[in-house]
Amino acid sequence: MTLVYYVEDDKNLRELTVYALNQAGIDAKGCVDDAEFRRACAERRPDAVLLDIMLPDVDGLEVLARIRKTPGLSRVPVMMLTAKDSELDKVRALDSGADDYLSKPFGMMEMVSRTRALLRRAGRDGSNNGQEELAVGDVVLWPDRREATVNGKPLSLTMREFDLLEFLMRSPGVVFSRETLLQRVWGWDFDGGSRTVDVHVQQIRAKLGDSSDLIETVRGVGYRVRG
């Protein structure tokens, strides 16, 4: 069974969120702070993490940065749940490696739906067989396994970076506007600005190194993977 950790110091919200996830058939455990979260991860690796930014012992973005650098945890999808809801706060979180962002107060149904989406993108819903392969140039993606290589070497991508690259690679040569990418990759309810797409493309290109020209900018329109 999949396991989700929710790191939140507000006892009532933490317990309500964990209860809602459990009722939806998702095994979830609450952690009051980063110290408890560390202990939980040492016992069992989670399949997804819901993370508050304003924690009592450390900034949630620092926790996120550590997750992304920790072997065994680096590919775990993370959704930030926080009262900070400005576009700048969202972009900071997403640029730091978060895969989704939900502002407080939030509805339990939406929270459960987004958590399911995280698990789906991570291939933890039990529906994948790991066989599909996408290859363009020197880049190869295995969507069901959430793995990628460039020139035969492992390519470390955040969940959102992987989703964006996968979407573009499924239609080589087709140009997609930033608005379309926001809708198709981030979801219809994502209200961040189109700058978010630009930032994620820049991050992917940096990780692709010599193969960064795989993603082409079409001035005044958007992006495409070269055909």
Describe the structure.
This protein has 227 residues and is an alpha/beta fold. 40% of the residues lie in helices and 20% in strands. The chain contains 8 helices and 12 strands. The protein has helices at residues 11-23, 34-43, 60-69, 87-95, 108-121, 159-169, 178-186, 195-208, and strands at residues 3-7, 27-31, 48-51, 78-82, 100-103, 134-136, 139-142, 147-150, 153-154, 176-177, 215-218, 222-225. The strands form 3 sheets. It has a 5-stranded parallel beta sheet with strand order 2-1-3-4-5, sandwiched between helices. Strand 3, helix 3 and strand 4 (78-82) form a beta-alpha-beta unit. Helix 6 (159-169) crosses helix 7 and helix 6 crosses helix 8. The radius of gyration is 17 Å and the shape is globular.
Keywords:
227 residues; alpha/beta; five-stranded parallel β-sheet; four-stranded antiparallel β-sheet; 8 helices; globular
Strand content: 15-25%
Average pLDDT, all residues:
87
Helix content: 25-40%
The total of helices stands at 8
Structural class: alpha/beta
| Strand ordering within the main sheet | 2-1-3-4-5
At a glance:
The protein has helices at 11-23, 34-43, 60-69, 87-95, 108-121, 159-169, 178-186, 195-208, and strands at residues 3-7, 27-31, 48-51, 78-82, 100-103, 134-136, 139-142, 147-150, 153-154, 176-177, 215-218, 222-225. With 227 residues, the protein is of the alpha/beta class.
Layout of strands and helices, then pairs:
Layout lengths: L2 E5 L3 H13 L3 E5 L2 H10 L4 E4 L8 H10 L8 E5 L4 H9 L4 E4 L4 H14 L12 E3 L2 E4 L4 E4 L2 E2 L4 H11 L6 E2 H9 L8 H14 L6 E4 L3 E4 L2
Parallel strand pairs: 1-2, 1-3, 3-4, 4-5
Antiparallel strand pairs: 6-7, 7-8, 8-9, 10-12, 11-12
